[in-house]
Design goal:
CATH topology of the largest domain: Purple Acid Phosphatase, chain A, domain 2
Largest sheet: 6 strands, mixed
CATH class of the largest domain: Alpha Beta
Number of domains: 2
Shape: elongated
Strand order of the largest sheet: 1-12-2-3-4-5
Strand content: 15-25%
Helix content: 40-55%
Distance between the termini: 54 Å
Number of strands: 12
Number of helices: 13
């Protein structure tokens, strides 16, 4: 039954994708007259690009290789280009519709020469946007927060936390990017390192093939390295992913709590999508918090930033999430802003500090427009 649901879901996704690809194609081909070599090249390149990502994901399942890597990179960049081509084509068609009702464009805009110029301009604009977005995506910054918890902790005046979410280890986040992220986290000299889910990008095979666990083993903090599951761990199979991460130095906290040095708690939730991808449920926040002494500081990790009011009610002092990517590519951030109370950044609800990271890696296109990948450095001071 679950396999049938997957087939239906992906069938719908591919049907929408190829329908929109056809829409973009019909607009682009207008710049190339019939019988010209330019039209032949446009057809060939467009079909190849449109099929590349689907072909790469299929090939990764049966024969992971340099060929599947190349197709993944090409297809992933095409997804970003496809998105911005779609937005621009829709905008152009809206202008054409208005012009059809209330003519205002000069006659020259219907000529072949103008169509070629428009095609060149749009393709160049999208190329520049994608290049800038890629450079941005591989340039993570450190975001610093100085927060106060109104609780006294014996022998501990402050806690330095390094937090990263949504690394998405895999083909696109390979050895070089993984080492960059690990070095960035280690450079903060934090007391504890926390990872907020989607550590692995669905398929574990590229992670194992590239031996990314060796980089994870280099993560170091005196109080340990802790992580939780995200929806992508469950999409690809949570148990093998958790086993791999555990074997490579990350303590995974799954719907339970851990008292650190008798001074503060780390509480980790299973991802909200566990029932959809793996069956069974996850514990409610109140159930996870049973046995937690809230007179001590409580730090809760929950991949998807929902139920903020309930976290406040249960006495959580700091809750950290990821998942949203803040849309990753503008203007998708308007959608995540509508879905989540906090799509990116800091908010205080009563005595509860909330931080939602836009992530340090990325899903799909290796492109970020409108926000910059980040590692979070939190100085948590305890003042009873």
């Amino acid at each position: 039954m679950r396999n049938i649901q997957f087939l239906i879901f992906f069938g719908i996704v591919f049907a929408i994708f190829f329908s929109l690809s056809w829409y973009i194609y019909t607009r682009g081909i207008m710049a190339f007259p019939k019988g010209t070599s330019g039209r032949m090249w446009f057809n060939t390149v467009f079909i190849f690009l449109s099929l590349s990502y689907s072909a790469a994901r299929f090939l990764e399942r049966i024969w992971i290789s340099s060929l599947s890597d190349v197709l993944t990179w090409i297809g992933s960049f095409w997804l970003a280009a496809f998105f911005y081509f779609l937005l621009i084509v829709i905008a152009i068609d809206l202008v054409r519709l208005v012009n059809y009702i209330f003519p205002f464009l000069p006659e020259y805009t219907s000529s072949l020469a103008f169509k070629k110029q428009l095609f060149t301009g749009v393709a160049s604009l999208v190329g520049v946007v994608i290049l800038a977005g890629y450079i941005n995506s591989i340039s993570p910054r450190v975001k610093k927060l100085d927060l106060v918890v109104n609780k006294k902790v014996e022998g501990l005046k402050e806690l330095n936390i390094a937090f990263a979410s949504d690394i998405h280890l895999g083909t696109l986040i390979g050895p070089r990017r993984t080492n960059q992220i690990v070095n960035k986290l280690n450079s903060l000299n934090a007391d504890i390192i926390l990872l907020g889910g989607d550590i692995v990008d669905e398929d574990l095979a590229p992670v194992i093939r590239n031996n990314l666990g060796d980089s994870l083993k280099k993560l170091h903090a005196p109080l340990g390295v802790y992580g939780i599951t995200g929806n992508h761990e469950y999409i690809g199979g949570a148990e093998p992913a958790v086993k791999y991460l555990t074997e490579n130095g990350i303590t995974m906290i799954r719907d339970t709590s851990k008292l650190i040095n008798g001074q503060f708690y780390i509480v980790g939730r299973e991802d909200r999508d566990r029932p959809r991808f793996a069956g069974g449920g996850r514990k409610a926040i109140a159930e996870v918090m049973m046995g937690v002494d809230t007179s001590k500081p409580v730090i809760l990790l929950d991949h998807q930033p929902f139920e903020l009011d309930e976290k406040q009610k249960q006495g959580v002092d700091l809750t950290m999430s990821g998942h949203t990517h803040h849309g990753q590519m503008w203007p998708l951030n308007y959608i995540t802003n509508a879905i989540f109370e906090v799509s990116w950044g800091y908010k205080q609800k009563g005595d509860t500090h909330v931080y939602v990271s836009c992530g340090v890696g990325g899903w799909g296109p290796p492109v970020r427009i409108g926000n910059r990948p980040e590692v979070i450095h939190i100085r948590l001071r305890f003042e009873g």
